[in-house]
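## Example record

The block below lists the input lines for one assembly entry, exactly as stored, with component labels intact.
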Amino acid sequence: MTLHTGHELLQRARSGGYGIGAFNTDNLEITLAIIEAAEETRSPVMLAITAGALKYTRERIAAIALAEARNASVPVAVHLDHGDSFERCLWCLRNGFTSVMIDMSHADEATNVRETRRVVDAARAVGISVEAEIGRLVELGAEVIISEENATLTTVAEASRFAEASGCDTLAIAVGTAHGPNKGRGRPEINHQRIAEIAAAVDIPLVMHGASSIPQDLVARFLASGGELEGAVGIHDDDIRQAIANGMSKVNVGTDLRIASSTAIRELLAEKPETTDLRKILAPAEAEMKRVIVEKMGLLGSNGHADD
Ligand code: 13P
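Predicted structure tokens for the full assembly:
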């Protein structure tokens, strides 16, 4: 099916009224779990690679993702997630990525527009699409840390002004989700009205970051196998469905795969403490991630759309 640009997949999703999963990958096993889940459900999919994943793998993850995407029997985009600089985006453009995100959402709006515009100009010259972000998500985890006080929901005016001025192809907005395993207390509140208003005002696909659901059955297994995950809460399935119905086209998921894989590894090692073969440790992790991704693709409604 070969590689597709992010924009191509997301435009189709936008007009078809379904969501496309962008799953974070850091290694071969995660990549295989994503691709095989997509093939099993006949879903288009995006492989999302962060700067941290590039660093961790000494950039090898790019070649792994691109090879798997080219061999897949479904449409796949290889995407830079949270690109932190113009130079990083250029590196990805030169190395075959079909979608890049430039994330200057922490900067003032003028800087965000200016830096996004530079990436858009470069990417457009080689036919690759660009995601940018306006608004600030809560981030209580490792890499980017934004507290609840510093998080701000995207306004309609901001979104239309920014989309127009930056020329980005897809737009990530802050509507109440958060990165990492702690997305709030109780059921995190998603501003559905805001999503609908922005979707009506902005003529490009919208992106929901921090969309892991943190399945409580997995959390229970993680805790039972000795893990610690204080107050882990995710986005309710009904909120994901509603967000897609109101205009979200790309749904970003990373933490669910981390919880799934580490739970499976904990259980395997508790059950078979004599295991030393890394393949035997990682195979159940890959299977658990694939199970979670297959379920997620059903929730997003991307099933069957590979063959549109
Ligand atoms: P989660 O932390 O909910 O998995 O979100 C991942 C994400 O938004 C990556 O860009």
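The first helix runs from residue 6 to 16. The chain has one domain: 6-213+235-254+285-307.
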